[in-house]
Design brief:
Helix content: 40-55%
Oligomer: single chain
Structural class: alpha+beta
Radius of gyration: 19 Å
Order of helices and strands: HHHEHEEHEHEEHHE
Shape: globular
Amino acid sequence: MARRKLTSVAQLRRFETVRKAVEENYIRMSMLDSIGGESNTDLAKRIAECTEGVKKCNSLACKLCNRTYRLMRVNELVHKLRCSKVRKGWWLITVVDYSRAFNHEELDRFDVGKAKGRLSKLLTRCGLEGPVLGCFEIDFHQSCGVWLPHFHVICPITEDNIRAASQLKTRLSLQQISHIREGIEPRPYKFQKIKNPYRQISYIHKLVYSRVVHFESCLTGTERSVKRRPKAEMYCDSLRWADRIGRMGVLFRYGERKWNP
């Protein structure tokens, strides 16, 4: 039986429903109110008004607003990819900046704009042609107590970009010589060909900031990792950070004018 071709990201089994987004917002509001403080309660109130249909907040800290944005953005990008004249397909690229990992106390001082600027300059030096589109993310690694900045982006596979990707990998390997965890080999990049566009492009626009927990599998003895919600106070800090940065603050766009659907 042939697999049904998806026509919207909302058809993905794991894409959150409106009900799930509302439930998540109530969890966030409860955590913000329980930690307290004027900035937390103000954010909780704005998310509550949005969730209850009083006033749209359009905050990066609001699961409901993020769901609406993801529906629009992912569907738009998949449509453009499917109409694209790029014959070799598209990559999903992850770029990790181990050298600029920072502790939680530095969260509000981390400059996302400069991080995006550094990546844009690196892509230019390597000769990568756009459009390169995606998002900036941070995850808190519990084992070493730092937030790790990284990007997930999509990029067309062309002959020029294949050569540029080789330079990008070399430069990243030279720049990122140390992992944030001792004894672990750094992996500053990952290239995957896009085969399931709705799932993969939804992944890079998930707009969620997690706590990464490492553990040893009792079955295989190998190390694994799992993502969890940060602990309450840290999570509230990250929600306020997301609200301050805004959705446009985390979006990455490079060479978008060269888009040729």
